[in-house]
Amino acid sequence: MAVRVVSEWLNSCSGCEISILNLGGTLLDLVPEKLSLVHIPALVDSKYFGPGGDQPHLSLPEAEVGILSGGIRNEEHKEVALEARKKCKFIIALGTCATNGGIPAQVNAFTNQEVTDKVFNKCLTTPPAPVPTQVVPKMTDRVYALDEVIKVDISIPGCPPHPDWIADAILALLAGKTDWKLPERSVCDTCQVIREKKAAGGADIKRSLTNPVFEVGEPIQKMRCLMEQGFLCQGPVTLAGCAGKDGNPRCVDARMPCRGCFGPIRKSANPLVEMMGALSSVGINAQSVPDRRMILNRFIGAHNKLRPLPQKPGA
Amino acid sequence: MAKTIQIQPVTRIEGHARVVIQLNDAGEVSDTKVHVMALRGFEKFCHGRPVEEMPRIVNRICGICPWNHHLASAKAADAVFGVTLPPTAVKLRRLAQHLAWIPDKLLNFYFLAAPDFVIGPTADPSVRNVVGIIQAAPDLAKKVVMLRQKGSMLLEDWLGKVIHPVAAAVGGFSTPLSAAYRDRIVAETKEQLEFALFTIKFAKENVFPKYLDAVKTLGVFDSGFLGTVTNDGTWDIYDGKLRMMKIDGSYEDFAYEQYSDHIAEAVEGWSYVKMPYAKKWGDGFSLDDAAPKGIYRANCLARINVCDRMPTPLAQKELEEFRAAFGRPAQLTLLYHWARLIELVANCEMALQLAQDPDILSKDVRADVTVKAGRGVGCVEAPRGTLIHDYTGDAQGFITDVNLIVGSTHNQAPINISVKKAAKAVIKGGVVDQGVLNLVEMAIRAYDP
Q1: Nearest 5°: phi and psi at B198?
Q2: Nearest residue to B235 (alpha-carbon basis) of B305, B302, B310, B298
Q3: Chain B residues close to A209, C-beta within 8 Å
Q4: Mutate which of A162, A209, A246, A262 to test chain B, going by most B C-beta atoms within 10 A?
Q5: Burial class (CB in 10 A: 0-12, 13-18, 19+), B10
Q6: What confidence tier does A32 reach under pLDDT thresholds 50, 70, 90?
Q7: Which residues of B touch A134 (CB under 8 A)?
Q8: SS3 content of chain B, % helix, strand, coil (to 5)
């Protein structure tokens, strides 16, 4: 019998779902004989309040696997996550928003009051208006990763996760293996650029205002490490996997530095502190990183990594 | 007996919404609302970020159209720093823009919209989806799955990431195009063009005619339209000026920086999303379905209506046929599906043209950038409508203010009106079932929100 899958998107952008579609032929091999998509809003007409829209409470169908993307940003996200946990045997947190808050958790550096004040009172084209309250769910005090709200069985980070890992995790589950996880390697461990290991002598970090030095058409193995070229590249403190099972890290492949979208290499890590150390080790003035707290926590603002700074006295 | 019906999630769309329909004691529709339930606050949390980092942050506004946000943001960042791009950088961004649209259009037509037309609007929901399509037309469905994936991988293999791209950098592009990869783009885009032509022919012969009644009635109302055109009025999705058309077909063109003279955003107490309206018309804003005010629409039907012509021969032929049948502006909501396929053809032709441009291989792809204080408005078209990114930065190049009006929001007010119209037309005497409610959802799905 086919394994039933419930998929939901919470505080997210739908990129994870497009990554599922980018499985292409692999998905066709699985659906519908091996996997039955019983609830996935992007593709299937399954409704919270029943087919006639007249059931009083939000409900999801029962399934073996629940795949949730996005973090928790309001009471409805929480309700959907709790319902999925209740109805699904295994929960997969899909994507960095679900595992670490993702870019939407940058908002954790601000209070809800600051956010709604800007959005509804201080935008150029918006005549000031009260914050909407009818029918719309109440915002939670901050963005939470999924595992702060419900028990998560498998985490597939990435912004978005590579289709290779989505397939790998699902196939592992189908084979009865319930402890799937990405190997604990750094982006640098999988990056094939040249490292000359010469220190930069205390230079300031280069902002992303110029291209690195490389030859067009030459493979990535001929380009010097972006951090050694003076750019902030978060490869040393970021979990590998963005290129799938093989291949070079994807942003570096496009000749742009890593920004940490797969999150930390292990849960206990502190990428901000570790990255400062990594920069110092190649002789870059770590204090010169612009917008340091936000850029080094760009994808991982949940788990209390980002919070509003205390107001300066008199401010 | 009065009753409340809730449709959630609205399915086979690319966003999140709840529809609430109120029935009165006679079982007639007394009110409907489409609620957007989440607020992320990009306009706030971008405050303080380095301007050059913005294209890598705001692409997360949408995982379906990250390229469009990425490009609008890069253009706004260029404008903040007052940098002029090398011509090839502009062409590479354009090429990426057109290539990104191709898989998006295939996804929408075949996976999201087609189940209503091929399987049937009131069919059993367990088969009214892409899996049903795979079972009904396995060879065609497999081809779509493969070509959509191939279209995505063409960008991914070239520029690292197809979802949440990084290659459009302030001042230009992160990497030139190699001759070998150019050849792959040409070959694969020819294949996409051939399939695009098949798709529009297939839809015109087998899909649209069967549902002309629904097209003529479902969620129909008259509105204005917003889109981008070049200086001479040709359809464009990367650069140009904005054109706001009134219901009577008259229009006004304006530069990006003037958008706030023409557009304002209304806040309703029941939805987190703001609702843009045509402020310049001076009528204010009203969602009253009997007498809407200030309502314009965006996305493909709008672009097809506002442009004087398409930029390429095959798409132009399609536009002429469409206009001969439906006039200008065409108002029927379900015609979005048809307009979308005209744009699919145009994107394939444009990508092919750009890839074969001799300048496309130049290595001069990034201008020198000097950080300075300034304001920049960057616009591109996303499949779902015009993106407006307005940034202000300080002397050190950090963001001090952001205003965003993004694709789907332009159509929030129109969607509310279309849903009200559709619900009133299909719900009679309190009789509601999944088929009836799906007809209401089809009025949303046309907009591809």
Answers
A1: -60, -45
A2: B310
A3: 52, 170-171, 369, 371
A4: A209
A5: buried
A6: confident
A7: 269-270
A8: 50, 20, 35
- Which residues of chain A are within 8 Å of residue B131 when distances are taken between CB atoms? 31-32, 37, 43-44
Whether the ω angle into residue B9 lies within 30 degrees of 0, i.e. cis, is yes
* CATH annotation of A3-174: 3.40.50.700
pTM comes to: 0.97
Q: Is the pLDDT of residue B1 over 80?
A: no
Closest residue on chain A to B116 (Cα): A45
How many beta-carbon contacts under 8 Å exist across A and B? Answer: 290
Indicate if ipTM > 0.95. yes
Structure tokens at A48: 């919270």
CA–CA gap between residue A276 and residue A145 (Å, rounded): 25
Q: How far is B159 from chain A (nearest CA, A)?
A: 5
Q: Is omega for the bond preceding A160 within 30 degrees of 0, making it cis?
A: yes
Burial class (CB in 10 A: 0-12, 13-18, 19+), B25: exposed
How far does CA B423 lie from the centroid of its chain?
24
Are B107 and A73 an interchain contact pair (Cβ–Cβ within 8 Å)? no
**Percentage of the residues of chain B whose pLDDT score is greater than 70:** 100
To the nearest whole Å, the CA of A205 is away from the closest chain B CA by 13
Whole-angstrom Cα distance, residue B186 to residue B98?
13
Query: CB-based contact (8 Å) between B119 and chain A?
Result: no
Which domain, by its residues, includes B442?
1-38+429-449
Query: On the CB side of B424, how many CA atoms lie within 13 Å of its CA?
Result: 15
In a domain, B442, yes or no: yes
Q: Which residues of A touch B268 (CB under 8 A)?
A: 132
Chain B residue at shortest CA distance from A42:
B12
pLDDT tens figures, B173-227: 999 999 999 999 999 999 999 999 999 999 999 988 888 888 888 899 999 999 9
- Binary contact (B14, A14; C-beta < 8 A): yes
Cβ-based contacts of A109 with chain B (< 8 Å) = 45
| Residue B182 within a domain | no
Selecting from B4, B165, B268 the residue whose C-beta is nearest the C-beta of A132 gives: B268
Alpha carbon A230 to chain centroid, angstroms: 26
Is position B434 within any domain? Answer: yes
Contact B41 A209 (CB under 8 A): no
Please tell me what DSSP assigns to residue A11. Answer: B
Looking at residue B289, its pLDDT comes to: 95
Domains in chain B: how many in total? 1
Query: Average pLDDT over chain B, rounded to whole?
Result: 96
Q: Could you tell me the sign of the dihedral formed by the alpha carbons of A118, A14, B70, B294, in that order?
A: negative
Alpha carbons B29 and A19: distance in angstroms, whole number:
39
Is residue B284 included in any domain, yes or no? no
Compute the half-sphere exposure of residue A96: CA atoms within 13 Å on the CB side of its CA: 30
What residues in B contact A125, CB-CB < 8 Å? 259-260, 263-265, 276, 403, 405
User: Across the interface, do B41 and A107 touch by the CB < 8 Å criterion?
Assistant: yes
Q: Please, is A130 exposed, middle or buried when counting C-beta atoms within 10 Å of its C-beta (0-12, 13-18, 19+)?
A: exposed
Q: How confident is the model at residue A314 (pLDDT cuts 50, 70, 90)?
A: low
Instruction: Report phi then psi at A280, rounded to 5.
Output: -60, -35
Cβ contact, residue pair B14, A295, below 8 Å = no
Is B260 in a helix, a strand, or coil? Answer: helix
Going from N- to C-terminal start, the domains of chain A cover 3-174, 185-305
For A19-78, the DSSP string reads: HHHTTTHHHHHHTTTTEEEEE-TTT----TT-TTS--SS-----EEEEEEESBEEEHHHH
Tokens found for residue B87: 């011509």
The residue of chain A nearest to residue B363, with distances taken between CA atoms, is A216
